[in-house]
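Good morning C.,

I know you're traveling, so I'll keep this short. The sequence:
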Amino acid sequence: MARPRTSSIKVDTKQRILDAAELEFAANGYGPARLADISARAGIKRPSLLYHFSTKEVLYRAVVLRTFQQIAVVLMTPKSTAECYETRIAGMSRNFESFLAQNTAAARIIVHEIVATEGPGRRLLVQQAAPLLSLVEDYVTQDDEGLLRPEIPVRAAILTTASEALLRHSAGDLREALWGPVVHDQSWILLRAMVLRTASEVLQ
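The tokens, ready to paste straight into the viewer:
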């Protein structure tokens, strides 16, 4: 049987390292996380990890960058122009909620960095999260149907609903105690209530 190509082995190993690192950083934060523990999670030796990622900071940066690349795809995948404004915004909100539900470790890493006072993650949030937030804000404000509340700071509303979703999906066994029964489409319900006018307001 032919041996697999070296390039395919490297891709598989690198992916395992990133997945293991995401879980370790989510559980412990950047500072306490250890490369030895990440190696063990990935099923490799520490030297093999260092072959792909020379330092913990390099590995952490790769994990965070991957997270925001995934979020960008989820949020900014082109929507059908045939859909009405509210449907397009609802789809974006639901996609973000679905991503967090499937990637709670990524949610925890972002929450860690929002409250952290030092470490490489803060720079990454400025570099990655701020431009993405601006893109989402621009998308939400492209309202050709007059539904957007003119008095609402859109960026703050987006951050409010995104932060609530991040905290909720990061909370683990605290979620039920703090949030109680979670309503289906909770993020979208909150965002819609903040930024969109009701039907009666539109008619006025």
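Safe travels,
E.
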